[in-house]
Amino acid sequence: ELAVALRPRAFDLLVALDVLEHLPDPWEVLARYADALRPGGFFIGSIPNIAHVSILQALALGRWQYQSAGLLDATHLRFFTYHSAIELCAGAGLAAVCRARDPSSR
After folding, report:
1. pTM for the predicted model, two decimal places
2. If you count Cβ atoms within 10 Å of the first and of the last residue's Cβ in the chain, which end, N or C, has fewer?
3. pLDDT (tens digit, 9 = 90+) per residue, 11-24?
4. 62, 82, 86, 61: which is closest to 71 by C-alpha?
């Protein structure tokens, strides 16, 4: 649950950098963020990509080692790929206007 109540259409900009993956229900939180944005407002977010090549290489070798920081931060409750992060935003009614390069387009 959000610690602070967000008023509907109260913000021009909301930021969540490397936050959503730490939450039990990032879908609900992002939906509340979307409701709190004014028309034309922006959400800036950063979500680690669990499909990063370093993770895939380790998995191919049968390794999954939680760490104190980074992609396998031990405090991550959720994991997202590039595409599931885009779906997370779309599910909250947020349209991507600028995003990191799609890793599958290389």
Report:
1. 0.84
2. C
3. 999 999 999 999 99
4. 82
